Automatic annotation (TrEMBL):
<keyword id="KW-0804">Transcription</keyword>
<dbReference type="InterPro" id="IPR050109">
    <property type="entry name" value="HTH-type_TetR-like_transc_reg"/>
</dbReference>
<dbReference type="InterPro" id="IPR009057">
    <property type="entry name" value="Homeodomain-like_sf"/>
</dbReference>
<dbReference type="Pfam" id="PF00440">
    <property type="entry name" value="TetR_N"/>
</dbReference>
<dbReference type="GO" id="GO:0003700">
    <property type="term" value="F:DNA-binding transcription factor activity"/>
</dbReference>
<keyword id="KW-0805">Transcription regulation</keyword>
<keyword id="KW-0238">DNA-binding</keyword>
<feature type="DNA-binding region" description="H-T-H motif">
    <location>
        <begin position="34"/>
        <end position="53"/>
    </location>
</feature>
<dbReference type="InterPro" id="IPR001647">
    <property type="entry name" value="HTH_TetR"/>
</dbReference>
<feature type="domain" description="HTH tetR-type">
    <location>
        <begin position="11"/>
        <end position="71"/>
    </location>
</feature>
<dbReference type="GO" id="GO:0000976">
    <property type="term" value="F:transcription cis-regulatory region binding"/>
</dbReference>
<protein>
    <recommendedName>
        <fullName>HTH tetR-type domain-containing protein</fullName>
    </recommendedName>
</protein>
Length: 202
């Protein structure tokens, strides 16, 4: 008979699958990960894996969502501790975002064109729309914090989100640039971001 898992069992197994998945994705990439290996690490059957995740791309997306929430919480917490002129604080926000993007192993994976294409094939359009909405809510929260302190006036958060989307695209295509080109491009985007964000500053 199939084993019945309690809610606590399910929570533990899912967290273990995520942890093992991160390790295997980091080592082998999206296409190189084998569900069998993840299941062996956790000590569950493949059927149990598919109870939680439809396919390995779904596991990747769950990890990406988990890490996205973690990074955003870290950035907002860091920013809440910052002081100084608003332009300087906006620049720190941008710099930390670049640091997060450059150091996250999942970002490095989707920077591989074939892995990115494989992921897109398994990502439903509504999931893409959901991710865009989450990013916009994050920007709105960030800007609302600045307005609450009286540091900026009204800001078009769609413009800010568009600039950060360009940054993500730039990081994903980093291999196409020389180190100097990449650094200069990031610096230019940083300048535009700060100017756009602080244009309405009192």
């Amino acid at each position: 008979m199939p084993r019945h898992f309690t809610a606590a069992d399910n929570e533990l197994i899912r967290s273990q699958l995520l942890a093992s998945g991160l390790a295997h994705f980091t080592q082998y990439g999206l296409r190189g990960l084998r569900v069998d290996d993840v299941c062996r690490d956790v000590g569950v059957a493949k059927g149990t894996f598919y109870k939680f995740f439809e396919h390995k791309e779904a596991l990747f997306l769950a990890l990406a969502d988990q890490r996205d929430q973690m990074h955003k919480a870290d950035i907002l917490a860091f920013f809440a501790r910052c002081d100084g002129p608003v332009a300087e604080r906006a620049g720190r926000f941008f710099d930390l975002l670049i640091e997060k993007l450059n150091s996250d192993p999942l970002v490095a994976i989707v920077a591989v064109p074939d892995d990115f294409a494989a992921l897109l094939r398994k990502t439903p359009p509504e999931r893409m729309a959901h991710e865009e909405e989450k990013d916009l809510r994050f920007i709105e929260r960030f800007c609302a914090g600045l307005r609450a302190e009286g540091l900026i006036g009204p800001v078009d958060t769609n413009d800010i989100a568009a600039i950060l989307t360009l940054l993500v695209s730039l990081v994903l295509q980093k291999s196409l640039f020389s180190a100097g080109q990449f650094s200069a491009s990031c610096a230019l985007l940083r300048e535009v971001f700060v100017q756009k964000l602080t244009a309405s500053a009192p």
